[in-house]
Structure formats: structure tokens, C-alpha cells
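Side project, low priority. Logging it here so it doesn't get lost.
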Amino acid sequence: MTQPPFADTPLTAAEARVLGTLMEKARTVPDSYPLTLNSLQTGCNQKSAREPVMNLSEHEIAEALDGLRGRSLVFETQGGRATRYEHNAQRGLGVPEQAAVLLGMLMLRGPQTAGELRLNTERWYKFLDIASVEAFLEELQERSADKGGPLVVKLPRQPGARESRWAHLLCGPVDATMLAAPATSEAGTGHHAALEALMARVDALEARVQALEARLERAGA
């Protein structure tokens, strides 16, 4: 595939959230994957591990699924009594697994540094080190025109920040001036680490709930 399916018409914010959520749940809660519309809505509207937090309706998610199906980024399957949905991101975007993981996380959590991406994708894929994350990001940024062009961009480093953040381009060009990053300080480092640990616990609990819901659905089928 020489050109991504969003080259002429970028993904909407809702489409990016739906695609990113399917990519996440395929790896973190495989027992409940593919997802029903209800489970997908819950995942899209999570309060943790999402930036920005969204409140998509079933209708908005259904519209996003239609758009993604038209680009061959999502497929519909039948499982039990409900229609289920699965992503085809890696093949549809024409990127290796590691690159797809990084794009999925950028869609879910917005711009992040290479270090943040390595930490946040740990349940999806274990990168050897930050250098390997940066290598895949640079490959995505330098993607040739015959393959569809760049899929990520390295943002200018914000005042007070130690590292530059990266953003995806699946929803079109990024206005770096609109993406204010909080300045990193020594005092805030401990708070950030504690918040990340709490979010990881919330993610784990949500995964357990979704897995239990999937078992109940199958038991009642």
C-alpha cells in the first residue's frame, strides 16, 4: 500500500479515538476483543489514559466506525449476540508493529516525549530503550512521499521542558502553538510518577471489568 487511506481526508477526532481504543484493547484485554459497540464506547470515554477526555455518543462512535470501515482500518465481525469490531491499523497504515503501537498511543494520549511513549506503551509492546522508540518515531517522520508522507512530527521543545514531544498527523497538520506542555520541574516529578501509577491501577481495573463483561456476554449467548 503506497498511500495511507487518510491522505486526502484526515481522520476526525472521533475516528482517531475509536481506532486508538480498538488498538489498545486488542493488546490489553484480549479476552473481550473484538469489542461490542457498548464496550467500545466505554473505552473511548475513559477518564484515565486519555487526552483529551471525550464523551462520545453511540451515534458518534457508529459514524466513526463507518468512516474507518470505508478506509479498511476497522472490520465488523459477529460474536455471540452482538456485532463486534476489530482494527486493521498496522496493515491499513502500512507500518511495522512498533510504529503502529506508537501511533495508537499518540491517538489516545496526545503529544508525548519518547520517554513517555516507552512508559505508556509498556502493556502494548516492550521497547528495548528510549533510543529504539526515537528510531521508529524518526522513521515515521521521514516517511517518503511515495509511502504517503510523514505520520508524526517532532514538536518544538517547550520552555522548561527537558525533551521534545511527538504528535501524530493522522488528523492532519498539528499547530504546535496550540499544544501547550506543562513545564517539567523537580517538585512535580514525584507527583507525575504517582499519578502514572494510579492511572495504571485504574487501567488494570477497567481491563478486569471489561473482561468480566465479555465473559457474561458469552455465557448468555
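Brief comment: Strands lie at 35-36, 74-79, 82-87, 152-154, 166-168.
Revisit when time allows.
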